[in-house]
Design brief:
Blueprint lengths: L1 H20 L18 E4 L2 E5 L12 E7 L2 E6 L4 E6 L3 E2 L9 E2 L4 E12 L6 E12 L3 E2 L1 E20 L4 E22 L4 E11 L4 E9 L2 E8 L1
Antiparallel strand pairs: 1-15, 2-3, 2-14, 3-4, 4-5, 5-8, 6-8, 7-10, 8-9, 9-13, 11-12, 12-15, 13-14
């Protein structure tokens, strides 16, 4: 029965991802902070399995399915335990290669905090999980660059010339715009170029705790960097 549940969960994640992609970082009725990260919008839904290929946490938890809507998450493990929590606003970390403009394989591009809690059906114990989820390049991630010009403000200057005699006053008005130029680069995260890495602590009541390191293929996301 558990094997059947595991297969169904893995097959359903694509449908869950498709459902939630259209509402990334939208408002929810649960009071979560729904702001996007500065320049980043990433959905961390996916099937997460132990990076070691073995047990993820506890005695027999081998995978978890994460479904993100806004910054709320719902989580199921392979024992059909159910957990709820949230993801923090994603932040851009690291820098692209100065020459190629790409994030090379292994580079951490975006990360966010993830927390969830619920009861482990297998152990019967309540679980608290707290960790960080990273978007890591598995191939070179090349962005699309465009030039930008930003007008900072308008300075109005009035010059008064007095000619005498006789007295005549000439007014001269000049407008000066202050502008800055730069460029912005947008990077797209896909299953082909990125994987999610979830690291954190799985703590169960009565003192049991486990260090979690899990990976999942990326679902979707974009982030933008700027330079002057």
């Amino acid at each position: 029965m558990r094997n059947t549940i595991s297969i169904v969960m893995a097959g359903a994640v694509s449908g869950l991802a498709a459902l939630f992609l259209g509402c990334e970082w939208e408002s929810t009725d649960d009071g979560f902070n729904t702001s996007k990260g500065a320049g980043a919008s990433v959905n961390f839904s996916g099937v997460y399995r132990a990076a070691s290929g073995g047990v993820l946490a506890g005695s027999n938890i081998t995978q978890i399915v994460v479904a993100q809507s806004g910054n709320a998450v719902e989580v199921w493990d392979n024992n059909n335990s159910y957990y709820t929590g949230s993801v923090g606003s994603p932040g851009i970390v690291g820098s692209a290669d100065a020459v190629s403009g790409a994030y090379s394989a292994g580079a951490v591009m975006v990360q966010s905090q993830m927390n969830f809690e619920g009861r482990n059906n297998n152990s019967g114990r309540y679980v608290l999980f707290s960790g960080i989820v990273h978007a890591v390049a598995v191939n070179d991630v090349q962005g699309t660059t465009s030039s930008t010009t930003v007008t900072v403000g308008t300075n109005n200057t009035t010059t008064i010339n007095i000619n005498a005699p006789p007295v005549t006053i000439d007014n001269e008005n000049t407008d000066a715009n202050t502008s800055t130029s730069g460029s912005s680069t947008t990077y797209s995260l896909t299953e082909a170029n990125t994987q999610y890495v979830l690291d954190g602590n799985w703590i169960e009541e009565k003192g049991s705790s486990y260090s979690v390191s899990a990976i999942a293929p990326a679902v979707s996301g974009t982030f933008t960097t700027t330079s002057n």
